[in-house]
Amino acid sequence: MAGPYYAKDLRQSELLSIGRHREEAHIWTLKVGELTYNKFDSAPPSTIQHHPLQRKKLVVSRRTINISIFTMAIKSLEIRPLSIPSTSAVDFGVEIHNVDLENLTEDDFDLIQNAVYKSHIAVIKNQAGLSPKAQYELTKRFDPTTDNYGHGKTLNAKRSVLHPDLKTIPHQPQVQVIGNGYYDEYEGLKNITLKHPHHKKFHQDAILEEDDLNATRFFRWHMDAALYALNPPKITSLMAVKVPEGRRQTLRYDDGTGEEMDVPLGTTAFVSGQNMYRILSEEDKKFVREAKVEYAAHPYIWMSPAKSRSDGLGMLSEGLELPNSELPPINEKDIKILPMCYKNPVTGNLALQIHPSAVKAIHLPNGEIMTDLKEVRDLIHRLQRPGISPQHVYPHDWVEGDLVLFNNQGVLHTVVGAFTPEEKRLFRQCNMASNEGVLGPDGKRY
């Protein structure tokens, strides 16, 4: 192995990134500031030599190294649990520090991938400079054979409930922009006005206007998935570019339970499907391991006239869904019938993973099909509702530069919050429809 090397004329806190070592050729890529040195073995380039005033040894490694004239510290990728209040039952999620996602080594990616599948959510800090291209490349790395946005062309359908919420980055179509406020320009998008989803547009009833800025609700619990023609994405990445500061809100369930939470403005709330499964009765666990859900064709258009429950966990049944005759053409082979539980590909643990708003029928273990929509929705709600009680919810307190990676086949999430027009929020979202089906409890792909 080459080295040790010595640093010359490095400014204080100058970042030096060491590229991946190719053992068979002994090739290293060394970056010092804006300079790059390639292809050297036992001897360093002439520009990297011993300096009599510094005498700071530079040992080549796969890690990121901060070099100062007076100090040198090796900063390895660091993974730590999220800071969770003692009153919370949340047992998932990690923070990741000291990682350069633009120059990610295989070793560090393996650590991140393992953390996401074991902890479901990974908050990678201090990524304000991350480009949309690098965000896309990182997300794709979890599922290299795929390349198409997870919702396909759903965004182009003006009747879709998703249509108002996202705008596509022209030069990176797998990455969407979401948020609140007006922007002259962002990543090729010109004169855009973003509107944060508000529950009054989707729920049957709304919080009173005079309480609107102090109180809020879960908007719509979901996983990111087209649920028709395309397989659910494995991973979603969310990047906080602009975050409003200061205000907090009371999140109300408004479902007769009296439950509520204190949350930061514009939080994204997460719950674990693994926990949702774990707290079921043994009888219900057996049922969800064996039953399947059938999703509606073109579900986000189908549900568009209907209204949601006040807890954001599924729709009310008032007969308002669009009939098939008013939907785009339907290919029966594209209708998704998926397990209620997904198996984690790393841990083998089961997660109760159902998009409650899009379900149309339940395929029972005995072969019968439950098609009464109210009964279907009531059953799904009974199974999932305990898992969204306050003690099981993680409301992320966003900081600009946070990049959150989450196991889209192991958690449900929802936007939260009510904004004034002046409060600006800008996020980037990336997920891609997988080329393979979800992993069921029986180990088969669906």
UniProtKB/TrEMBL annotation:
Domain of life: Eukaryota
Residues of the TauD/TfdA-like domain: 89-429
Pfam families membership: TauD
Keywords: Dioxygenase, Iron, Metal-binding, Oxidoreductase
Any GO molecular function: dioxygenase activity
Cofactors that this protein relies on: Fe(2+)
SUPFAM superfamilies cross-referenced by the UniProt entry: Clavaminate synthase-like (SSF51197)
Keyword Iron attached: yes
Similarity field: Belongs to the TfdA dioxygenase family.
Protein name: TauD/TfdA-like domain-containing protein
Organism of origin: Hymenoscyphus albidus
Lineage: Eukaryota, Fungi, Dikarya, Ascomycota, Pezizomycotina
